[in-house]
Amino acid sequence: MHIKRFTANNMTDALALVKQALGDDAVILANRRVEGENGESHIEVTAATDSVSEGAQSSSSVAQKAEHAQQKTFEKIPDNFPKLEHDASDLQKLLDKHGILPNISKRIDNAVKALAETGFDDLDTLDMVLGKMITFEAPAKAVAKGKYHVFIGPTGAGKSTTVCKLAAHKKIDRHSIALITLDNQKIGGFEQMAIFASALKEEAYLMKAAEDWAEIEQAAQGKDYVFIDTPGINVFNTAQVSALKKRLEAIGLQNATVHLVLPASLNPLEMAAMPAALAALHPSTILFTKFDETTYLGGLTNVAITSGLKVCYVTDGTSVPDDIVELDASMLAEKLMRKPRLPWEREA
Ligand SMILES: Nc1nc2c(ncn2[C@@H]2O[C@H](COP(=O)(O)OP(=O)(O)OP(=O)(O)O)[C@@H](O)[C@H]2O)c(=O)[nH]1
Ligand SMILES: [Mg+2]
Predict the structure, then answer these.
(1) Atom 13 (ligand 1) nearest CA
(2) What residue owns the CA closest to ligand 1's atom 24?
């Protein structure tokens, strides 16, 4: 039984309220005159009903009924309703965990699935797919003889260390080299290069201003490999990019290969945006550093795919000249097939 109290100015209005809320079958249980807050007189009617008819319900009972109806609807999901749960394959889930952007992991997964039908296993197919999606280049082509090699990238990326590693390898292989740095900003920037050069029985050259180039060019002339280190910049700061571009223009970049040096451990989204931010400097390769510091290879994979730049080396430690290796599709596939983990997580 529903029992409710209604208050109105007179009996006619009170009965109209009863009828509206409880319907024609409502029974008046009691009525009395009551005083309002300001002393005015009202009629209070108490009414009851056994059934609440359609169109004669309180707002709360309407809401309850709507909720009930809704629950009923959701209990019966149509058979052909699209699945709302994540239906990604195990491979795609693994790639997502690495931080590969969803549209890219989907593309890789689709390609792997298509190839899997030909009988290859996931590792081989991933190797083949990455080989198609990323432009891997052999070391002899990426760091070609007779060219200037300019290394650019964010601060602390490992540019100078990488220059030292590559220069040492060329020297060990009995090639002639020249070592030049544009870094007159970091304290000890030039000294770092000079100490290393003297260990190789070479000289390092500091190019502070455009006027220095004529003399440095003489020293670089005829060398098998000319390595040019640059100061680290905030790659999203357009003024810093323009300033570096201006300094490099003094050298003339026609005969230069510009290598973008990026730590593999960078934030994947910012990393993916860096080649575009540095487009004015025309990088043609990406060289990944600090491969030893992360197991999450999504950032590296994203930027290698989206930028279209050539990929050749990764560095995997601080040791000069040892910690630099060639990265190819099979090495990347093999690493991506391993679950990335934080230092305290055990390897699966
Ligand atoms: N773990 C690890 N550390 C590296 C690697 N490469 C460089 N480093 C270290 O990263 C730090 C910065 O290296 P640098 O070569 O000075 O970096 P940079 O890009 O020249 O730095 P700026 O000139 O200041 O922009 C140093 O402590 C290096 O030893 C690497 O592959 N792995
Ligand atoms: Mg440096």
Answers:
(1) 158
(2) 156
The full DSSP string for 189-234 is HHHHHHHHHHHTT--EEE--SGGGHHHHHHHHTT-SEEEEE---B-
Select from 3.40.50.300, 3.40.50.980, 3.40.430.10, 3.40.30.10 the CATH code of 133-336.
Answer: 3.40.50.300
Task: In whole angstroms, give the CA distance from residue 334 to residue 211.
Answer: 49
* Residue 292 in contact with ligand 1 by CB distance below 6 A: yes
**Over the stretch 167-224, which tens digit does the pLDDT of each residue have?**
999 999 999 999 999 999 899 889 999 999 999 999 999 999 999 999 999 999 999 9
**98 C-beta closer than 6 A to ligand 1:** no
Its pTM stands at 0.77
Which of 151, 286, 289 to mutate for ligand 1's pocket (most ligand atoms within 8 Å of CB)? 289
Q: Write down the domain spans for the chain.
A: 2-75, 133-336
Q: Could you tell me the distance, in angstroms and rounded to a whole number, from the CA of residue 246 to the centre of ligand 2?
A: 19
Å from CA of 159 to ligand 2 middle = 5
- Separation CA 93–CA 100 (nearest Å): 10
Given a contact cutoff of 8 angstroms between Cβ atoms, the answer to whether 280 and 244 are in contact is: no
Task: Write the pLDDT tens digit of every residue in 103-143.
Answer: 999 999 999 988 888 888 889 999 999 999 999 999 999 99
**Residue of the CA atom closest to atom 14 of ligand 1:** 158
Average pLDDT over residues 330-343: 93
Confidence label for 79 from pLDDT (cuts 50, 70 and 90): low
Q: Which two tokens stand for residue 308?
A: 């279209």
Q: Which amino acid is at 141?
A: K
- Cβ 109 under 6 angstroms from ligand 1: no
